[in-house]
């Protein structure tokens, strides 16, 4: 079981580690009070775009993590990697119920073939 999880997550690990390090760099650039009363991006406005690019690159690995896990899982289980990627992307579809709605207690009632849940 541990080997199976390792086979799935080890190929994804470099992307996650890199994203985490980039998030740390971005936090250093945007943290107030670390290098003076203002963040570095306010002290040196030319760093603003650099900080935005770092943020986009860093957050991409975490935003698309379900797709990466779907791809890697299908690679390990011997299925179609494209299908695994698509199934991971389905989990990210904004038309699905979000965790925030569930936490607020708002769960929509969906009807499938005239059956209501």
Automatic annotation (TrEMBL):
What's any GO biological process attached to this entry? trehalose transport
Question: Which cellular component appears as one GO term in the record?
Answer: plasma membrane
User: What Gene Ontology molecular function terms does this protein carry?
Assistant: protein-N(PI)-phosphohistidine-sugar phosphotransferase activity; protein-phosphocysteine-trehalose phosphotransferase system transporter activity
Q: Which sequence ranges are marked TM in the entry? A: 12-30, 50-69, 76-92
What's the protein's topology in the membrane? Multi-pass membrane protein
Fetch the InterPro entries from UniProt. PTS_EIIC (IPR003352), PTS_Sugar-Specific_Components (IPR050558)
Q: Where located? A: Cell membrane
PANTHER family this protein is in? Answer: PHOSPHOTRANSFERASE SYSTEM TRANSPORT PROTEIN, PTS SYSTEM TREHALOSE-SPECIFIC EIIBC COMPONENT
Q: What is this protein called?
A: Phosphotransferase system trehalose-specific enzyme IIBC component
Its gene name is treB_1
């Amino acid at each position: 079981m541990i080997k199976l999880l390792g086979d799935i997550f080890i190929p994804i690990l470099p992307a996650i580690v890199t994203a985490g390090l980039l998030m740390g760099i971005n936090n250093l650039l945007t943290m107030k009070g670390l290098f003076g009363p203002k963040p570095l991006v306010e002290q040196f406005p030319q760093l603003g775009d650099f900080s935005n690019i770092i943020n986009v690159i860093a957050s991409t690995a975490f935003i698309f993590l379900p797709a990466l896990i779907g791809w890697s899982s299908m690679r390990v289980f011997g299925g179609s990697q494209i299908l695994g990627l698509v199934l991971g992307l389905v989990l990210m579809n904004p038309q699905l119920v979000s965790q925030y709605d569930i936490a607020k207690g708002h769960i929509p009632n969906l009807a499938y073939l005239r059956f209501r849940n």
